[in-house]
Amino acid sequence: SLYVLGLVSTLGLATLAWVVSVLKRDVSIVDGVWALMLFAAATVYATGAEPHTPRTTLILTLVALWALRLSGHIIHRNWGEPEDRRYQDIRRKYEPNFALKSLGLIFWFQAVLAWVISMPLWPALTVPVDWGTFDVLAVTLWTVGMTFEGIGDWQLSRFKADPENRGKVMDRGLWRYTRHPNYFGEVALWWGVWLIA
Description:
With 197 residues, this protein is an all-alpha fold.
């Protein structure tokens, strides 16, 4: 079924990322691939849409925009940096042979998690329904969330790039109103997708 193919797509992408992580000795790259796993599953589900409706295109586009922005942001942020300290701790804990163990512990685990989270996208992408008020509200909520998340990430990146802010807490811009505007935006945009579904 499409659910199984969705799992195959997330596991396949995770396995490719794992190969790169072994070559680089850096499992942090899984963070940059996470959103792309959900997009891969969504793309698989969209192939089952009969008929393929404008709603299918809309949802797939929203997921693609989210995945490309988030993955691009994380990859850019981590480029040239050492392996994230969280993953260094996991590496120390699971040596020897962490490189092999990381395939299941980190990459396939996150692939299965992405697959479970992606499951509501299957009916959302494949069940043809008429446009309604919820769609307008949903896309509005998604847009607010995506904008909030993007601005929050941009503001934090600029804050951390200034050496004078080393050791300080970001409390400017959107960060003045919520501790984690990027996470708030993430939650809002996925509630938008839920409303469409």
